[in-house]
Amino acid sequence: xxxxxNLLTKRNLTLYALIILIAIISNPAHAQSGMDVFDESSIAxxxxxDAEINTDTLELILELKDINTKESITDIHMNIELISVxxxxxxxxxxxxxxxxxxxxxPGEWIITLKxxxxxxxxxxxxxxxxxxxxxxxxxxxxxxxxxxxxGMVYTDAKQTQVVEGAILKFDCSAYYGEAGEMTTDAxxxxxxxxxxxxxxxxxxxxxxxxxxxxVTISPGTLTSDIQIILDxxxxxxxxxxxxxxxxxxxxLLVMLLIRLRKHLPKKAKKEHNQIQQPxxxxxxxxxxxxxxxxxxxxxxxxxxNESTQNRIYHSTFIPKTSLVxxxxxxxxxxxxxxxxxxxxxxxxxxxxFLDKE
Length: 358
Prior knowledge:
The chain is of the alpha+beta class. Among the domains are: about 1-40; about 50-145, Immunoglobulin-like (Sandwich), CATH 2.60.40.1120; about 275-350, Arc Repressor Mutant, subunit A, CATH 1.10.10.10. It is about 30% helix and about 35% strand. It has helices at about 1-25, 30, 35-40, 50, 240-265, 265-275, 280-285, 290-300, 310-315, 320-335, and strands at about 60-65, 75-85, 90-95, 100-105, 110-115, 125-135, 140-155, 170-175, 185, 190-195, 200-205, 210-215, 225-230, 235, 305-310, 335-340, 345-350. The strands form 3 sheets. Strands 1, 2, 3, 4, 5, 6, 7, 10 and 13 form a 9-stranded mixed beta sheet that branches. The chain has a 5-stranded antiparallel beta sheet with strand order 9-8-11-12-14, with no helix packed on it. It is flat.
């Protein structure tokens, strides 16, 4: 009897093992190895759809062309920056054989910056900034400007025995587009600037009381390397020292004259001068969070009764038009200013919230 029971138990165990084996083989989730499962998945590159707002949007179709040759621009990686009052985003999209860039954006005013880079070239290739009021589905041809890149070193002397860390570089180009902003040399005395306009640029370098410069021709899609700038001049020459001294004496005399005239101002004028309101604590705290360009705009408005026009701000601050529009939109997005459109005139006002008057 005991032998029969053991035999039945072995048969049952064999049957259970066979059932489990069939279940594993028939289940596709266990039929593949861990490597096969990962092979079936894919990692998508950065997509513009991730940066866009999926609510009510309008279709903007941009056909990309070279401004000089009028030929279509293809086989290029396009860095895209989108800025509006309500949103801002950055992404990268590859433009293949079809020179079309499709964007789905909410209605409103947009600043679109495109920076093109072909992997087959040594430098950057194209740049464009376009501002438009998007009110309906639109097809538009956008002409991109050629750009290039430059890199080099800053030295203390012509023998190139010592590099300069922290030298301030300024790019003065004969064309006003691209990104020719100021920068400083790194710990190795080197610098690299991309998205420079394809034209003649003069690069100035300054460190302490020494300056130097170098003229460079920027070629489209090319990285111009081995640029060497020698700090071989004094920041203030002997001829200029006398002029600087005379200017300082003149300013001192002018200040003394203004102080004397102020004593004879009518009492009413003095009273009105003293009534100029000082910025509140909230206003000062918010100002500290702004970048230099935004702070320059806000300070101008504070000095002009808290309001002005876009045109006056442009002529008074010397901020480039595209950069000014971008900064104004960002300031409005932060609820610091309010932009009112009166025909072609744009009136800019500081908000009561920013002035702590709510």
